[in-house]
Amino acid sequence: MEGKGRPAILKEECTGCGACVEACPIGAIRMHDGLAQIDESCNLCGGCRDVCPSGAIRFPEEDREKQPAVAEHHHVWVFAEVRQGKLASVVPELLGAGRRLADQLGESLHAVVVTAPREEIYQQLFGYGADAVWQVEHELVFEGDEMARAAALCQLIRRERPAVVLFGATAMGRSLAPRIATRLKTGLTADCTGLEIDPETRLLRQIRPAFGGNIMAEILTKYRRPQMATVRPRVMKAPRFRPDSSGPIHHFVPAELDGGLTLEELVLEEVETVNLEDADIIVSGGRGLGDPRNFALLEELARLLGAAVGASRAAVDSGWIPYPHQVGQTGKTVAPKVYIAVGISGAIQHLVGMQSSDVIVAINKNPDAPIFKVATYGIVGDLFEVVPALIRQLKKMRGVT
Amino acid sequence: MLHVVVCIKQVPEITEVSIDRRTNTLVREGVPSIINPFDMYAIEEGLRLKEAHGGTVSVISMGPPQVESSLKEAVAMGADRAVLLSDSRFAGADTLATAYTLAQGIRRLGQFDLVICGKQAIDGDTGQVGPGLAEELGIPHVTYVRRIRELGDGMLRVERMVEGGWELISTTLPALISVVKDINEPRLPSLKGIMRAKRTPVTVWGLEELGCDPQRVGLTGSATEVVRIWTPEPRESGELLQGDPEQQARQLVERLRGLGVI
Amino acid sequence: MQYFLSEEQEAIRDLARRLAEEKIRPQAPVLDEREEFPSQLMKELARADLFAVPFPEEYGGMGYGLFELCLVVEQLAWACAGVATSYAASFLGALPILEFGTEDQKRRYLPSLAAGERMAAFALTEPEAGSDAGAISTTAVRDGDHYVLNGTKQWITNGGEADVYTVIALTDKTKGARGASAFVVEKGTPGFSFGKKEKKLGIRCSVTRELSFTDCRVPAHNRLGREGMGFLIAMRTLDKARPGVGALAVGLAQGALDEAVAYASQRVQFGKPISSFQAIGHKLADMATLIEASRALVYQVARSIDAGQRDFSKESAMAKLFPADVAMRVTLEAVQVFGGYGYMRDYPVEKRMRDAKILQIYEGTNEIQRNIIASALVRELKSRRR
Ligand SMILES: Cc1cc2nc3c(=O)[nH]c(=O)nc-3n(C[C@H](O)[C@H](O)[C@H](O)COP(=O)(O)OP(=O)(O)OC[C@H]3O[C@@H](n4cnc5c(N)ncnc54)[C@H](O)[C@@H]3O)c2cc1C
Ligand SMILES: Cc1cc2nc3c(=O)[nH]c(=O)nc-3n(C[C@H](O)[C@H](O)[C@H](O)COP(=O)(O)OP(=O)(O)OC[C@H]3O[C@@H](n4cnc5c(N)ncnc54)[C@H](O)[C@@H]3O)c2cc1C
Known about the structure:
By secondary structure, chain A is α/β, with parallel strands linked by helices. Chain A folds into three domains: 56 residues, Alpha-Beta Plaits; 180 residues, HUPs (Rossmann fold, 3-Layer(aba) Sandwich), CATH 3.40.50.620; 118 residues, Rossmann fold (3-Layer(aba) Sandwich). Helices cover 27% and strands 24% of the residues of chain A. Chain A is flat, with a radius of gyration of 25 Å. Chain B is α/β, with parallel strands linked by helices. Chain B has a single domain, classed as HUPs (Rossmann fold, 3-Layer(aba) Sandwich). Chain B is built from seven helices and 15 strands. In chain B, the strands form three sheets. Chain B has a nine-stranded mixed sheet with strand order 11-10-9-12-8-1-6-7-13, with helices on both faces.
């Protein structure tokens, strides 16, 4: 193999044992004339090298630019997103994860705020485990200009050299983090579901799903700093809040900043119900509801459960419910504690958006519907009988407790 | 004249991907490739802007030679120009290296007003290339755009989906946006477009043509490294609740209470 | 079977298939239920350039022939015969202009029809003149540089939706069929109105309406061909369009077979998929064989016509007759394979069965096709003797 981007098979060494073919997680290796052959799709994961008994697989030289300062980066930072004056629900979760990492490193945990200074935000950050808070101070930054926010954060990160920076995988986090990582020429891992420090190398081991959760990958940022990651809301556990904690607040006034965006208006649409992203429980409806009016039934169920209302694409495309409610490949990816799929068949494009939920409940009249394959609890039946029964049961329960 | 650049990625058709439970690997044999679904909305939006304002739409992708078929499909839909950034040294790129390489390609295309990306690719699921690319190009970006309200006179005004609602954001051109499904309904290619695509060659640029720093592309230029890939355990098979609807409902409420989730 | 399509023909077929799968199929049951004309889908077909396929390039078409038209119609009918009928009927309405129009007439009408901006319809049938088209009574009386039309056309596909109508009317009542002429009448012409929309057994999204002419003045330059050529124009048009009906039948039947095979492999009775019962397997085998024979016939006749075969009434009648009968039989069998489920409107095969029936009736009933074939046989024998 001559491609520089692919590992080379040393013909003299390869015994044709096929161990690499078995080991390749993406099926990129084939046996040809008794020799292993690696095709274009190789993503250089190294699985084959590790199993090759004769050392016949050579990887491209790792002559990457090594930052000299890797060792000079310390502490774990968490981006403290504030939305409409409130700390985003993902921030305590990030602080929980960050705390563990900081403890494993024997370093401290810092939170960075880019919205206007507020005492109660600081209290929450300390209460959820931050050792120190960085408050960025600049008009453009306060006004919500993400370009200015990214620029200010880059200045601060360059100066302070954190080892790890975590963002929530929210609209804001997923916009800021890649901008910052690119400017700092460092690595960023999206949507991590697991984070830990390797005790030997002190590297951040980042675990994330890809392909809609069909595969998992472990990712390292070995030679650049900081090690950056976004974490989906509701994946990490928020720590217990300790009300009396406090710590130092550092103020950072960035050098001159170029703005980029003007946030003219924010319109909140789903005031009545809970956001899909923040919900512990989601009740989702599909084509089986048959009519937009029947979503009222789901809304009643959702209210009783304190749940958010989701939908399949079929329901959205029929105009029964707006797109922000769509779950799945071309909608939102959610992972609540409980996902209740009502009248949804469970097409793969829907499953990839919700299959990492803790508990999945399927209500469908077709016992062969693929949704039952992922369901923790399945109810085969007519939703127009089952959902009202469920509503009655919940009301009864509320009455009793 | 408006020049819109649309970035597309070729991904495997997810419905066709299965997992070999014996070897615990992804079965890719014979899996067809498609344009990343979110990028279809990006192409459509580019074409609509061209129809409304005049100008041209270029589509660009980084990937192996077989990505030509996806670029041709974009031409069949109405794009004017297709560019493939392809070089064996680009292989193994993470989002950082991809953003750099795409930026080199877009610079080489010449003056442009707007770059459109899909919200994220369905295989990697990161959504990082768009903002990273904007940074490389030194232009502002807005993610999750669900509607373009206004474009012209060097400025752009868009609605951006955020948790619980949307924001109205304005910025200056050139800029980059990433779009969500809500923004439009992509067209199918037209027959004349398909015939034109057959005749239109895809421009292929490699590392040298792009003047890329070899240290910044592909695996070498990547900051992250995938050290391990595995398939998660399949979900344990669930429990079918029996009885009449009332009994089924009662059991479900009991189970959920038992788990402490309600 | 491999029909050795050119790369371009494959592209045409594949695009029509994509539209059928992605746009038409999801909507077919709804359109049927609501008896709703698929205006949006017609726009999609137009945007995909499918209307342009059989028109010459100088009129904005793609310059392909009847065969390519058949490829499109077959795929559309695979998803919905009603949508395919609406599409094909527009070409039927345009054919007389294409074949018999003057340069000026072609310039005026064909580009917008090829672009799918406007649709066409073909109006021959009347309450008293069905199979016996010579019995029409709509009249067109010359008055200066106009003709004045009076009468009623019945069951006109695309009636009310189309903008351009080719109408066969009598310019000389005394001569009967030889006194007929063909006219292009535009929607909106004073005196031209539409009757009620028919409620049908099948192809319910295709619109069938009455056309009514009351002292409707049509410019003389809208007459196609000479006076008295109307009947010839109508017959030539129908001859040429018939393989299209055959293609529609092939697509419809193929869709029914696909559904039946999928269902038979999945439905379990007596502990086995019903496809493993020979009675079902043989049924499927017969259906597949009949469909392939129909397709081969339609494709070859269309290719022969495109290649310049002169007299093709007999073959084109065969290419309508056989596939239409096959579609009827195949869709009946498909319902049988589905059993009781097949009889339910929740499942897609009963619609196909309802849709198939029209194929044995319109554009000349199958009895009339047999008449055409039989008389051609006799004619051929005579000419050989001579
Ligand atoms: C590129 C692409 C992207 C896509 N992205 C998404 C996405 O993001 N999200 C998404 O959801 N889909 C997505 N899809 C669509 C997906 O393939 C399915 O078409 C869609 O999820 C089906 O929605 P559904 O389950 O509501 O409808 P259906 O598949 O029609 O299922 C309806 C279900 O309701 C049941 N039902 C009917 N009546 C009752 C009743 N009275 N009681 C109980 N059950 C009943 C039926 O048994 C059936 O299982 C995508 C498709 C493509 C091609
Ligand atoms: C949905 C629909 C759409 C249509 N669209 C159009 C259109 O767009 N334009 C248009 O001009 N017309 C259209 N028609 C009319 C169609 O072409 C006629 O219905 C058809 O030609 C048969 O005429 P008829 O219905 O009057 O039947 P009849 O002629 O009354 O026939 C009744 C029966 O007698 C048989 N029969 C009649 N004469 C003979 C014979 N000589 N030998 C043997 N059997 C005979 C017939 O085969 C049939 O079985 C449409 C009809 C329908 C139902």
